[in-house]
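Key result, reporting period 2: structure in, sequence out.
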């Protein structure tokens, strides 16, 4: 299976500091190996997680009223250490399930 450019960029995206994060909807604790859905905004070359949802709160598609260019990805939470030696959680094995292209 070949990853798209977006999926390759999203895999490794930081979604939390330390070894735990929380669902932005219900507040559930997200730890390594939990499945998540992440809404990612795109502004030029900046890719930032806007919302992280647990599997129970996942919506499966971008809200039709969304106006900003973004991608919706599913993946797993993975623990890692950044270049400065700090623990963080990242999105692993990301697949893009929906996208909203910018208006041209």
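The corresponding designed sequence is given below.
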């Amino acid at each position: 299976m070949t990853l798209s450019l977006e999926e390759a960029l999203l895999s490794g995206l930081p979604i939390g500091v330390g070894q735990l994060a929380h669902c932005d909807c219900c507040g559930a604790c997200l730890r390594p190996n939990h499945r998540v859905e992440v809404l990612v905004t795109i502004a030029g070359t900046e890719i930032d997680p806007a919302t992280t949802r647990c599997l129970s709160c996942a919506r499966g598609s971008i809200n039709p009223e969304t106006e900003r260019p973004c991608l919706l990805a599913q993946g797993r939470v993975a623990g890692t250490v950044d270049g400065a030696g700090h623990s963080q959680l990242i999105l692993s094995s990301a697949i893009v399930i929906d996208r909203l292209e910018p208006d041209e």
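The chain has a mean pLDDT of 88. The helical segments are 5-10. This case is discussed further under Risks and Mitigation.
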